[in-house]
Design a protein that fits this description.
- The protein is built from three helices and seven strands; from the N terminus they run H-E-E-E-H-H-E-E-E-E.
- The protein is α+β, with helices and mostly antiparallel strands and about 180 residues long.
- The chain has three domains: about 50 residues, no CATH class; about 70 residues, OB fold (Dihydrolipoamide Acetyltransferase, E2P) (Beta Barrel); about 45 residues, no CATH class.
- Helix 2 packs antiparallel against helix 3.
- The radius of gyration is 36 Å and the shape is elongated.
Length: about 180
């Protein structure tokens, strides 16, 4: 702790002047202690608010009523994603673009146009292939008995509705007989 010593105020000096000189330091110490307590309390409350209580019910189904390994479908979504390119589109596009570029260019610019056509054709072919290979994905969000959630993705319709009680078998969701 900080302590200010005035001339004539020794460690054991209890004179009124020395006591008054030490009083502001004790007040400062008390103020700092109070501020630290408020900060620690506020931090503890903020930490508690991050942990929301586990849900009791999901889509009208009480979690306490499902088996220990079961969960309840809370949301299902279908989305279309771009497919992955194998390179066939890029190669095909580059060949076609190179041929077209070669026919457009003449003289010294012939080589440059062939290269630009091949690059442009390759990029276009790659994009076309990704769009042609689009994939439909079904995302199913499940809330388990312990309150944890997990998202499962399938490339075919799992035929599940919100509120269905499900179990995970071999990484896939299966309706659980109630």
């Amino acid at each position: 702790m900080w302590q200010v010593t005035f001339a004539g105020c020794g460690r054991d000096n209890g004179s009124p002047t020395c006591l008054l000189a030490k009083a502001p330091m004790k007040l400062l110490d008390a103020t700092l202690l109070a501020a630290m307590l408020v900060a620690v309390t506020a931090a503890a409350r903020a930490d508690d608010s991050d942990h929301a209580p586990a849900p009791i019910e999901v889509r009208g189904v009480k979690l306490a009523s499902v088996c220990a390994a079961c969960g309840v479908v809370s949301d299902t979504r279908v989305e279309t994603r771009r497919g992955s390119a194998s390179g066939v589109g890029a190669v095909g596009g580059a060949v076609v673009g190179g041929i077209v570029g070669h026919q457009i260019g003449s003289g010294g610019g012939n080589t440059a146009m062939t290269v630009l056509g091949a690059l442009g054709g390759g990029l276009a072919g790659n994009a076309i292939e990704k769009k042609a290979r689009k994939v439909t994905v079904w995302s199913t969000i499940v809330v388990f008995k312990d309150g944890s959630t997990q998202t499962f993705e399938e490339t075919s319709d799992p035929d599940l509705d919100d509120g269905d009680v499900v179990k995970v078998e071999h990484g896939h969701l299966v309706k659980h007989a109630s």
